[in-house]
Amino acid sequence: MKHLVDRVLNHVTMYRLMLYYTGALLVAAFGLGLFGLVPADPTALVFSTVVIVATCWATNRAFAWLLRVPVNAESVHITALILALIMPPVTASDHMGLAGLVLASVAAIASKFLLAVDRKHIFNPVALGAVVSGLALGQPAIWWLGGNSYLLPIVLIGGLMVTRKVQRLDMIGVYVLANLAAVAATTPPEMAGMALQQSLYYSPLFFAGFAMLTEPLTAAHGRVSRLVYGAIVGVLSSPNIQIGGFYLTPEIAFLVGNLYAWAASPKGRFKLTLLRVEEIAAGCYDYVFHSEKALPFRPGQYLDWTLHLEQPDSRGNRRPFTIASAPTENEVRLGVKFYPQPSAFKRKMIEMMPGDVMYGSQIAGTFTLPRDPNQKLAFIAGGIGITPFRSIVQDLVDRGDEREIVLLYGNNRPDEIAYGDLFERARRELGMRAVYAVAEGGVYGPGYHNGFIDEDLILREVPDLRERTFYISGPRGMVVRFEKALRRLGVRRSRIKVDFFPGFA
């Protein structure tokens, strides 16, 4: 079942999945409202949703036109739908309530453009919009979705799929535990059980975590930072937390957490101008860019790449891709493999010419080398999953940093092997050993293995595997398979680091 879920999730972007999630909740709420099973009046809910979506869309178009920047249309719709799920549904005759919806929508979208540093917005737009509406007009978020037993299964199932997609179960877990701990600590012991039950069943705890904590541009990155971020938001979201006589709300908790995340995360948005395209293997290409400013990244980290698409498809106009270049290089490389029936994003990339622009943001990722230079390492890569290793190895070669490394690199055919010249140079200069596993064809000589990477190959080529830290990069199914294989072979979980591509682009 888990593998089936992963296969489905691999074919949809995080933004599209969140759009499906929030859309499904709204549709379910409308249907249940017809029978009086949710607190929202269905007519008011439809009217409010239309107002919010239209206001968010118009505000986004206006700022995009004024500032001449590409935007993620799906992100706008997600913001609108979450607002519709937390703001009070109103009718056309409720002028103050209607003004609150419009103000929340305008403030949410405007914050992406105005409350930003180096084109990266700081605050969760939904949280900020709700706070502005509450403070300015006395029309706060009421989080009407929370506490409805009929909607809770959709909240949980859809939210867990989102969490699985973005691989942030640890952050969500810390957030929930921190919230429950704060509730228990601030409640009289005789009432603690009831208070915890209220938090689990009758509060916006889960929806806020799944829909807003996972928002990538305002969340913290790096494992420790995101756990701290989850704990901050979880504690401050507790209904008993107050400053003086002022009780905090979930949306205020998010704004405080966003400030921490911004302080703890890499800053900035990067304008990347295409210099050239290089074919690195059959169907694989390096897009080589000039950046207007240096990217402060470590080898093995990734970047969110955004393209302006006139007609984006279901996979949107933003992708997380590993930075294939090294910090020692003056150019920024993006390694891409093109499959049949590519997405609109990939089709646009195929059409790109020197001088065209992409935008990068949100440098993140922990797929980086240990600080200890004496730690023995083993890399396992499948297909275009070789890109983080290209970044790491190029950096080691440029700095003359000798490490004990074995690379196992799997492909279907020998012409699909990318960056072979670099790995040969690393062998000569640093003593790195590379083994190429090729599934199709005959014998290819020393350094090649006929067939797939399997446990026998790992044991043969890495006999001291229990002394090494393993890095695995490739499609999700491959990563999971090798994680399990290494555990069977006796490699400790703490010595396995994984990277994967969250969808086919």
Automatic annotation (TrEMBL):
Enumerate the spans annotated as FAD-binding FR-type domain.
267-370
Necessary cofactors:
FAD
Q: Which UniProt keywords apply?
A: 2Fe-2S, FAD, Flavoprotein, Iron, Iron-sulfur, Membrane, Metal-binding, Oxidoreductase, Transmembrane, Transmembrane helix
Q: Which InterPro entries match?
A: FAD-bd_FR_type, FNR_nucleotide-bd, MRET, OxRdtase_FAD/NAD-bd, Riboflavin_synthase-like_b-brl
Locate the transmembrane regions by residue number.
20-38, 44-64, 71-90, 96-115, 122-138, 144-162, 169-188, 200-220, 227-248
Q: What single Pfam family name could you report for this chain, choosing any that match?
A: NAD_binding_1
| UniProt entry tagged with the keyword Cytoplasm | no
User: Record's CDD domains?
Assistant: FNR_like
Q: Which PANTHER family match?
A: NADH OXIDOREDUCTASE HCR
Protein name, entry field: FAD-binding FR-type domain-containing protein
Tell me which species this is from.
Acidimangrovimonas pyrenivorans
